[in-house]
Amino acid sequence: MIAAVVCFVSLAAVAGACWLVLPLLRARNKRLLAARMFGTSCDASGTIGFSLLCSGVRRLSQIENLLSSEYVRSEVVVVADASLRRAFFESLIARYRMIRVEYLPSDEFPVQHVRSMWRSRRRCFRRLVLLDRSEDTSADDWNAAASVASYDWLIPVRDGQYLLPGVLERLSVEAGQGHPGAVGALRSWVGGSFALLSRDAVAAAGGFGPGFLRKIPRHARRWLWEPFFYRPEFRRGSSRWRFLGVAALGCAIFAALWYGWWVLAALLLAGAVVLCAVACAGLLLADMAGRKVPCKIDVKNFTEW
Amino acid sequence: MNLLLIICAVCSGAAVVGLSVLWVVETLKARRQGGFRSVLQRRYLHIVMSALYSGRGAVPRFPMLRRVGSRLVLAETLAGVVSMTYGLDVGLLRQVVARYGLDRWLLRRVRFAQGYRRARYLALLAVLPVGEGIPPRMARYGRSRNRYVRFFALMTRVSAEPLAALRRLADHAVPFSDTEVAEIMTWLRRGALPVAYEPLVASPSFNLRRVGLCVVRQFGIEEAEPLLLRLLDGEEPYASGTEALFTLCALHRPLVRREVSRCVARLSPSQRRALMRYMAQCSYSPQVLSRLFDDSESAYYDTIVRSYKRCLV
Amino acid sequence: MPRILIASDDEFARELVRLALAGVDAEVRCAGCGAELERLCARVLFDMVIVLRTAPFFCGRELIGRLRPEGLRRPVVYVLSWQQCEQTVLALLECGVDQYLTFPVSLQRLRAKVVSDLAVNGL
Known about the structure:
The complex is a heterotrimer of chains A (305), B (313) and C (123).
Chain A: H1 2-35, E1 50-55, H2 60-66, E2 74-80, H3 86-95, E3 98-101, E4 114-120, E5 128-133, H4 138-148, E6 153-157, E7 162-163, H5 167-175, E8 185-188, E9 194-198, H6 199-204, E10 221-223, E11 229-230, H7 239-259, H8 262-289, H9 300-303
Parallel strand pairs in A: 1-2, 1-6, 2-5, 8-10
Antiparallel strand pairs in A: 3-4, 4-5, 6-9, 7-11, 8-9
Helix pairs in contact in A: 1-8, 7-8
Chain B: H1 2-34, H2 36-54, H3 70-84, H4 90-99, H5 102-112, H6 115-127, H7 147-160, H8 165-171, H9 178-189, H10 197-201, H11 206-219, H12 225-233, H13 238-250, H14 258-266, H15 269-281, H16 286-292, H17 295-306
Helix pairs in contact in B: 2-3, 5-6, 6-7, 7-8, 9-11, 11-13, 12-13, 12-14, 15-17
Chain C: E1 3-7, H1 11-20, E2 27-31, H2 35-43, E3 48-51, H3 55-58, H4 63-67, E4 76-81, H5 86-95, E5 99-102, H6 107-120
Parallel strand pairs in C: 1-2, 1-3, 3-4, 4-5
């Protein structure tokens, strides 16, 4: 019985490792290909546009990051409560020279409690829209933001989620595939929860709300295995402890094999498979996110010319 | 039972070894990317630019070309230079490609790679000035299951034989996606082929019409208006009419036309709303809309347009 | 000798433009688009800054104000990017950018423009 369980665990670990690493390898190759496609950076890619809907954002640096995309057809709609976050709201208005514009609710999404809407008087900040709305759930904030969004693809953003460089260009490749309406939602769990949603699909699901993703037809939902957001405050653990852990596991496997404790050896090897898969996944993700591994190769011979 | 456990342990051990090798290879690749590779790319770029500016036409020598990955660095460097510029001496670049056999080497990589890796190598081949033997070998990749492989195989043939470009684009079996049209546009913007918009927009091929409409949009060709109206009015497939309508808006042309009304009537409600949002971005006044849409839809447009107006209360 | 700064996070594009300006009688330096650019500009008054992205002008960092001291017309600011949307070009010109070129770019034309702009400014 124990042996059967151990066999099952081992095979599950191997299958899980393949399930984790192979799609990431594929996604990395796709990302490298997309990086060579300069057409996405210019404004030739038709009418594909992205509206980033921000709920609960508290930092100017995050808005600066979201506005830093080179993709032309994109906008950032920030929903904030001016009565609760007065300093943040006023700093936004002053920094981006915003003026109050007329706000009329549309019937596309369920929206309530919007006090005012603001746009910048300067052309260079025309991609920013600000909504003053009493603080509520994120879903209600996103509904309010979607109702004033100009583009057909919606990306919900929470506090602390920063966009990786070139993400919108990469997403335009995905969004442009297939006939209109073929894709309702593109999601990724890698590097933080991410969703790119078709405006029509969200409207048909009755707007953002509990379980709205399940209302989008299954055939219109797709998964991507790439990071799109990052969190600047994220820090990796100490490498010394990781090294000690790996060394201890290696010694334990060696001892189990030496003494012929096959049950223990199989279990430890299953654990090692999982560890290796996680390490590989981490490396691939770091590569996709553009973080370089520290270089120790001596390049002094080639730096002078 | 012990035998079963040993088999499981061996399987797991093999997986551990495989994943460890992958980890080591990826780590080494990442280190090369950060250090040696970027330095080598700078070096190669310097050599290429010096050769181009010297005007002597002599093929330069590239150091360390026998090291692992160096040919790929050289191919990427040349592809980067060609992609980002126009008006350079393509003859010299062609000589470099031929002298170091970059096209044949990339073709070998294409043969042994799969999926997106294969598409990546084809994307490099599509930009480099390759030899005459390469385009015929692309035919087999035109039947690939991966749409990027198919597209970049097409682009390799198109850029190697610009005179047959329009025929090849028209013959492509799958409708181009927006990104693929954008890639073709960047190729055209490099001056690879002088293109007149009229035969493209009036073409019976859906793919050529898409490229033609993109040319009209990008260069703001207002003279194309009669052709666009014909696309709206004719018995053309649905998608071309919609795109022609968006192109008319991008050109800021008057929309109160019989052809436009008929095309708008054929759109679905969500497409009509998307069109209204696009029209608002193109600064059309609400008066225009009253003839194209009914009252409830005009009210939606009114909410969008008024959101661009300063609140005076 | 006039000083030119090329700013981009893309090392390849930065090097390409730097090498394209190799024959120009000027001191050419390179920087990333972020803090490095602002730090360099705070220390040195450049005659020309070539930025290979549009985003630093649109994200609210007031880049022109940081590059160009109050009351001065220097440095001349060039922007090179892939975008050719009319609104983008107008927004950049409104920000105070002097010249906008799109990729793919003719390196000879870029070089000629840089030389003529430096000559016009008496440098």
